[in-house]
Amino acid sequence: MNFTLTEEQQLIQDTAKRFAENELAPVAQTLDETKDKSILLANCHKLAELGFMGLNIDGEYGGTEAGTIAFSVAMTEIARGCASTAVTMSVTNMVAEVIQAVGSEQQKAHYLPLICSGEYKAGSFCLTESGAGSDPASMSTQAEKTDKGYVINGTKQWITSAEFAGVFVVWAVTDANAAKGKGITCFLVDANSAGITVGPAEKKMGQHGSATNEVHFNNVEVPDSAVLGKVNDGFRIAVAELAGGRIGIGSLALGVGLAAMDYATAYIQERKQFGRPIADFQGLQWMMADRYTELEAARLLLLSASDKKDNGLAFAKEASMAKVFASEKANAACYTALQMLGGYGYMQEYPLERMARDVRITSIYEGTSEIQRVIIAREILREFK
Question: How many domains does the chain have?
C-alpha cells in the first residue's frame, strides 16, 4: 500500500486536527470534571457539521464517503483533543456503517441521513450484556415473534451514548433452539420506543464525558421491518462490524497516546534540573524514543487494516492486531508521559492523569486484548490449513 495520504484524506486529518486543538482540547478537562453532557453534545453537533458522523457513509445518504483510512486518521486527531468525544464519534460511525452494510434501502434512506446530519445526536450499539461480554453469543435478550413483528425483552450493558442516542442497533435471540450464535437477530429500534428504559450513567474510571448506561427492554414491540439484515444472522453481523469498530478504538488509543507523549516531550524541554533541561538526559530520551517508535508502528498497523477494509479484503486479523498493539502501546505511552513529568503528572491541573484514565479502557472495550489475541491466533492457524 501507499502510506501517503490522498489529498482528501490529508484535508480530513488537518480539519480534525484544527477542530481538536481549537474546540475539543480547551473544554476536555471541564467535560471530564463536570460530566456536563451539553458540552459533549455541542462537540458532537459540530462533528456532524464537519461530516465526521458518517465518514465512511455514501454521499447519497448524507455521508462523507471518505473511507476507512480517513476515518482512522480523523479519529486519532479527535482523540488527541478529547477521548470522550472521540468514543461517541467512533460508536456512532459504527452504527451508521452496520446500517449501510446490511440494512434495507428503506432503513438506509431513513436512518443514515438522521445520523450523518446530527439530527440524531448519536447512535448506540446494544450487544453486550452482564453475562455476555467477551462471549456475546451467550446473550439472554429475547425477541419473540408475534403477528405484528417482534417483542424484545432483556437488558444491555455498557452502552455508549444510550441516554441521548436516536437509534439503537440491538441484538436478541430469536431462535433459542438453534446452535450457539446461530439464532440471534439484529434489530433497529428507535430510542423513543415504548418499553425502553435507560439506566443512570455509570461511574467510570475515565472518559467521564461520554455517556455509558444500561438499556432495559421491557416488552418493546418492533415491526418486521426493524430486522437489520436476515433473521438469525445477527451474530455474523456483529462479528463483522466489531472488526471495523476495532480500527476506530485503536485509532482513538493512538490519539491519546500521542497527545500524552507530545505534552510530556514539550514539558521536558522546559523543565530544568541539575542546571539543564531534563530533555538532555539520555534516560528520558530513550523513554521518548521507545514510545514514539511504538506509536508509529501502531499507526502503520491501523493504516494497513484500514487499507484492507477499503479494498474489500479480509481484515479481521489486521484489525485485531492494530487494536491490541495500539491500545497497549498507548497505555504504555501515557504511563511513560506521566513518569516524565514526575509528581506534576499526577496532579489534576495537568492533563496526563486524565489521559492515563481515559486510555485504560481502550484495551477492554470492542474486545479485550486477550480476545484480540484469540482472534489473531485463530486467523493465523486458518492460514496454515
Answer: 3
What average pLDDT score do residues 132-136 get? 91
Which CATH number covers residue 280?
Answer: 1.20.140.10
On average, the pLDDT of the chain sits at: 97
313-318 contacts, C-beta under 8 A, 24 or more apart: 315/243, 316/239, 316/243, 316/375, 316/379, 317/375, 317/376, 317/379, 317/380
- 337-380: pLDDT as tens digits: 999 999 999 999 999 999 999 999 999 999 999 999 999 999 99
State pLDDT tens for residues 172-228. 999 999 999 999 999 999 999 999 999 999 999 999 999 999 999 999 999 999 999
Q: Which long-range contacts (CB under 8 A, 24 or more apart) does 188-193 make?
A: 188/99, 188/103, 188/107, 188/111, 188/222, 188/226, 188/228, 189/126, 189/152, 189/217, 189/220, 189/222, 189/226, 190/166, 191/124, 191/165, 191/166, 191/167, 193/220, 193/221, 193/222
Note if 65 is an active site residue. no
Verify that 245 and 373 share a domain, yes or no: yes
CATH number for position 49:
1.10.540.10
Mean pLDDT across the stretch 241-260?
97
User: Do 117 and 65 sit in the same domain of this protein?
Assistant: yes
Residue-range definition of the domain harbouring residue 107: 7-121
Tell me, yes or no, whether 249 and 139 share the same domain. no
pLDDT over 90 (residue 2): no
pLDDT at site 1: 66
User: Out of 105, 296, 366, 379, which one is annotated catalytic?
Assistant: 366
Q: Say if 1 falls within a structural domain.
A: no
The position carrying cell 439472554 is 140
